[in-house]
Design goal:
Layout lengths: L1 H18 L4 H14 L7 H25 L5 H21 L5 H19 L16 H18 L4 H11 L4 H25 L5 H22 L4 H24 L1
């Protein structure tokens, strides 16, 4: 099981650091389905959400460091959006312990579907343009709501945050990707703590997932710098949509 989790971490780490979503949206469906396909014991939904937080923590840390070297991480975004997300993620991850698995899947599917649709919309800002900070309170409030949803579902904040920054707050795509990894790192620390304190993180699987995610994040972040922003958005939308339909299918079973 540890080897399988390492492979899942590797794949999701590459995608996560390349697109800025942290990789949890890919790790979640893989963790839910792959064990049964290989005749291994299934991982419970609550354990999967805990592992997704661990995966996000590793990918976001490594990916943010690589993106920061290229100047694509905004301190303003980390301070204001990050502060709201940390509080929201911790709260959401703790209350998820008492939410039925069935409804967690529905919430996860609907949130992912919304993000996928948003990512297919045209972007008005330049992919590599300059970011001009404004209205700090807007970023903080948006971060709080994002953190609660992400912490409850184990999705990580990447998908919601990058949609928020690019489409609603007009942050250039590459700065949004790099900064989202940094912001999501803050949320992942709080979210992982909440999941661990409520015993939702299996240790052996978490170690394997983290090792694979660290290696994948380095590769994914470097690939991101050489891929057109429009292509990155399409790749991201595809992965989000697949994960959304999978979660909704499991809910309807």
């Amino acid at each position: 099981m540890m080897l399988l989790c390492a492979l899942i971490g590797l794949v999701s780490g590459i995608v996560g650091a390349m697109t800025g979503v942290g990789g949890a949206l890919l790790a979640v469906p893989l963790l839910l389905t792959t064990p049964s396909l290989l005749n291994l014991p299934n991982i419970t939904v609550h354990a999967v959400t805990g592992l997704a937080m661990v995966q996000g923590l590793t990918t976001n840390l490594v990916g943010a460091l690589v993106h920061r070297k290229s100047g694509f991480v905004s301190g303003f975004l980390l301070r204001w959006a990050g502060s709201g997300i940390v509080v929201g993620s911790l709260f959401g991850s703790v209350i998820s312990r008492w939410l039925p698995s069935h409804w967690l899947l529905l919430t996860l599917g609907l949130v992912l579907l919304f993000c996928a649709v948003q990512m297919l919309r045209p972007v008005s800002s330049e992919p590599n343009g300059e970011f001009v900070p404004s209205a700090p309170s807007h970023f903080a409030v948006a971060g709080l709501v994002t953190g609660i949803l992400a912490g409850a579902t184990g999705l990580g904040t990447g998908s919601l945050t990058i949609v928020l920054l690019v489409y609603w707050l007009k942050v250039p795509v590459r700065i949004a990707i790099g900064s989202t990894l940094g912001i999501s790192l803050l949320a992942a620390i709080a979210g992982t703590l909440g999941k661990a304190l409520t015993l939702q993180v299996p240790f052996i699987e978490a170690v394997g997932l983290s090792i694979g995610a660290a290696v994948g994040a380095v590769c994914g972040a470097k690939i991101s710098h050489n891929v057109p922003a429009r292509t990155l958005r399409r790749i991201l939308a595809t992965f989000i949509a697949i994960a959304a339909f999978h979660a909704l299918w499991r809910f309807l079973r």
